[in-house]
Write a structure and sequence with these properties.
The protein is built from 5 helices and no strands. By secondary structure, it is mainly alpha-helical. The two termini are 21 Å apart. The mean pLDDT is 94.
């Protein structure tokens, strides 16, 4: 499926960007500590940089986690219910996941628009906040799409088997 392939590439690109954000966060922290200890000159804006990179690394990983269906699970009922019931529960959980991420996406819209409208910035670096909210919104939408692909994969074999 062309859409699935495009979502795989998008999810991979997001993961790579998330890994870069994680590396930047690590390097900024290391440099801040070393510069403070050796030269008594800490990295200006280190806290802002770490905050932004943490947000990016967390949300940029979300699309691929959802596409691989590798969220943390508690599988208490897996051995207690028949296979068909388990498949239905998995589909229901995927639908709930899409709904929850949609709810998060809707609730990110107002802060995104407010930070853009009012020109909110990070205090130490002067970095505008609206791009961060835009990335969160983008990642939530991509995660919803990749979760929908997993839902289709989960439901489709059942539909084919009944035909």
């Amino acid at each position: 499926m062309v859409i699935e392939r495009a979502l795989q590439q998008l999810a991979r690109a997001c993961t790579v960007l998330g890994a870069i954000a994680l590396a930047v966060m690590m390097l900024a922290t290391d440099y801040d500590i070393a510069a403070r200890a050796l030269f008594r000159a800490p990295l200006s804006g280190a806290v802002d940089i770490v905050e932004m990179m943490m947000l990016l690394s967390a949300f940029l990983g979300l699309p691929e986690i959802c596409l691989r269906d590798e969220q943390i699970r508690v599988d208490i009922v897996d051995t207690l219910v028949p296979a068909r019931v388990l498949e239905a529960l998995k589909a229901l959980a995927l639908i709930a996941t899409i709904g929850f991420m949609g709810l998060l996406a809707v609730n990110v819209m107002r802060p995104l628009m407010d930070t853009w409208r009012f020109g909110d910035i990070k205090p130490d670096t002067g970095f505008p906040l609206y791009p961060l909210f835009a990335v969160v919104l983008f990642c939530l939408m991509a995660a919803m799409a990749t979760t929908a692909v997993v839902l289709i994969r989960t439901v489709r074999p059942q539909a084919v088997a009944r035909s």
